[in-house]
Amino acid sequence: MECCRRATPGTPLLFLAFLLLSSRTARSEEDRDGLWDAWGPWSECSRTCGGGASYSLRRCLSNKSCEGRNIRYRTCSNVDCPPEAGDFRAQQCSAHNDVKHHGQFYEWLPVSNDPDNPCSLKCQAKGTTLVVELAPKVLDGTRCYTESLDMCISGLCQVSAGFFPFYFSRKFHLCVNILYGPAIS
């Protein structure tokens, strides 16, 4: 596993300290004008296993618009799902099996790896060539692509290690656990 090269002792702690300090600095600069209320509590995770997303909201206290985001995300439930749980996108497609499409019931199978819109719920009727977008966006925490840790959040594909809230991706947890034991949960 490439990410799991043995690092010198203390490297993960330095990395975590850097992330926390840079986050605190960015947050204090962003909130310096005092126009934002405090961040609210984290929501329930969108999934119970397999990696999901949780969000926290804050309110703009000004009559004017506030600079910055009013929502932030983090990964959660970064434990493997049991094999019988099945694919998360497939679960979302099969939820439409009891809904008629053009007057007919279908058994829906997931269409994955759509390069144009990886976060829409496209499903194929079993035994046919019929492919339908059953929802404009998949549930938060659905993988953008089958062989990727990137996940869909609010209908957009987010790179799991591309910005601060997703640094603590499943891959990061696995590597830290392999090298140093399960210190981060």
UniProtKB/TrEMBL annotation:
Pfam family for this entry, one: TSP_1
Q: Does the keyword Disulfide bond apply?
A: yes
Keyword terms, alphabetized = Disulfide bond, Secreted, Signal
Q: Spell out the SMART domains in the cross-references.
A: TSP1
Under SUPFAM superfamilies, the record lists: TSP-1 type 1 repeat
Which InterPro entries is this protein grouped with? ADAMTS/ADAMTS-like, ADAMTS_ADAMTS-like, TSP1_rpt, TSP1_rpt_sf
Q: Where in the cell is it found?
A: Secreted
Query: Which range is the signal sequence, renumbered to this chain?
Result: 1-28
Protein name per UniProt:
ADAMTS like 1
Task: Name the species this protein comes from.
Answer: Felis catus
